[in-house]
Specification:
By secondary structure, this protein is mostly helical. The chain contains 16 helices and two strands. The chain has one domain. Helices cover about 60% and strands about 0% of the residues. Helix 3 crosses helix 11, helix 7 packs across helix 16 and helix 8 packs antiparallel against helix 10. The radius of gyration is 21 Å and the shape is globular.
Amino acid sequence: MKHKSLKFTRDTEFNFIGILRKRVGEYFETNKLSKYGNAHMVWKTIILLTAYFLPYGLMVSGVITGTLPLILVWGIMGAAMSGIGFSIMHDANHGAYSKNQNVNKYVGYVINLVGGSSVNWKIQHNVLHHTYTNVEGVDEDIDPGILMRLSPHAKHYKLHSIQHIYGWFLYTLMTFLWITTKDFRQLFRYRRMGLTKSQNINVWFQLFKLALSKVVYYTIFLAIPMMVLPIPWWQTTIYFIGMHMVAGFILAIVFQPAHVMPSTSFPLPDSDGNLENDWAIHQLHTTTNFSPDSYLLSWYVGGLNYQVEHHLFPSICHVHYKKLSKIVRQTAEEFGLPYKSEPSYFRALIQHAKMLKQLGQPEMVKA
């Protein structure tokens, strides 16, 4: 079913989101806080960008040499790449990094420095995933292709019976797909869906910018290291791929436990395109938090362990999610609505692994 034909039920009885937004607004007003980023965000940006570019600079300048040091350097860059995705470009592309939307726009382009596309990402993530979370055929985050089944409503193939084993390797390919074919295929798919038009995107100009950004990216992070490092070109290529495998794996094992879990729902619309709940209540049913008490994890993943808060308030910077979580949980409980949260990240991963195994069974159907 096309996204345009889907409709959420109006919450005329409870007005959960209205009351929640009022309480959150009062929190910011009472504490005289801005909903955007703060000095914490600026320092985090500096630290993560330094962790990405400093190892690169030390490597291409010849300060760092040798097989093991180079493996470590590319690995650090891969982990920093994930951190940049979680903590910098994510908030910026949601318009939450700064109250100045030009700052958000240009900081959001950081995703292009790690091989992606801010334009495509905004459509896939902001428009489709955040609106129609876990809705089969619309939310592309649960549609990785035929090799994996992340929804009980997706077509089942025999190989899915062992996806809980091989799926972890496929997760490593996430950002590698960004830098090869995915962005180009997405752009034309969104054109056919009418999404580029609705987002005022000139497809052909965007195609030019996309191709140019890929050329610049490959030049900086592959061609230049090939030319200056005193190792064979194929070895540099392996390191480059390894960096992306590290980044892709980390990104996947943070994003997937937020939605592909035994506790989350995968709602289907009725024949008229009506979904069972209103948008906000839909987010509560399809989203799970994890490890809410881990400061270090929350810092690195940009508060995405508070996925419930992020989905309900994507335009609020993640530095506020921990405090907001108390308001969201209390309000959800008052209305008798679910507030799903796993106490630890390890438990969340275990539950996600169980879900992968369940989804690999042909009889697995979950409303």
